[in-house]
Every structure is written in structure tokens, then in C-alpha cells.
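Shipment paperwork, digital attachment
Item: protein structure file
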Amino acid sequence: MNTVRRPLAVSLALMVASCATLAGCGVRVSDAGAVTPTASSPSPTGSANVRGVVDDERMAKLQRSRWSAKVTQHVVCVDGAYTVDRNADASVVEVTGACREVTILASAATVLLPAVDELSVQGDGNIVIMAAAREVVLDAGADANLVGWESGTAVVKDAGTLNGTTPIS
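Attachment content:
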């Protein structure tokens, strides 16, 4: 093992070992930019839904009713686009209105969304619940996010690590 890979391998081993001590913790490692097909059928464009580990405990976090009473920021999408910026770190944000594009820069936020065309997640550790989405993009720096949609089929492009994406039904 060369010296460049050794710190990465040690870090990964420590992360997996510490994760193993936590109940319900899941790990998924993928190459940046890789699209990992799952049991879902690929869409006509050839992309597939990408799913990390979404167990019962994580699925429970994707229930809109769990978060509705905890919303700390109510915002309206204007001109079809909205950015959940870093001021929303560790907040529960509800976005309403007609949104085509939503970008999430915040970290550790819970974001409740209407149906959107495109969602881009750049922050870490977010929980995102959408009515529906056409496309979900998790950037290379977006790690440990949990994203769910209540209806339809979203095309997911996940370049980050430890993300979980799933339909909520």
C-alpha cells in the first residue's frame, strides 16, 4: 500500500470500527462520480436510483409529520429557485411555493420541500424530504445526507459518501 492510500485506508477502518459500535449505523463506500445501480430498474436515460443504507430507523427520519411541528424557518420559493444557505445549519426549514430548483448548502439541517425538478445537495448530514423530484444530485463534498421523496421516481446522481436516497412510501 503506498503512502497516499495508507491514511485513507486507516481513516476508513477507524470510521467503520466506530460506526460498528452505533446501533443502526450503515456504511456505503463508492468512488466519486460512480453511479451504483440498485434493485431499482434503470430509467430510460440509463441512470439508476442510487440508495445507501436506509434501514427502518433512517426511514422513520424521513416522515414529514415527524418534522412539521419542529420547523424553525418557513420560506417561500420565489422565481422558481431557492437556496438553503449556511444560515440554516442545524435548523428545520420548510420551503413552500413552486420550486423548480433547490440547492442545499447547509449542514445538519432538515429540509421539507414541495415537488421540485432539481435538487442539489452540497452540505453534509442533512435530512431532505420532498413531495417529488425529477433529479437529485449529491455533490462530491456532500456526505452523510438522507434524501427521500414521497411520490414518483427521482434520478439520483451521488458523488458523495455515506448518503442514503429512497422513495418514501
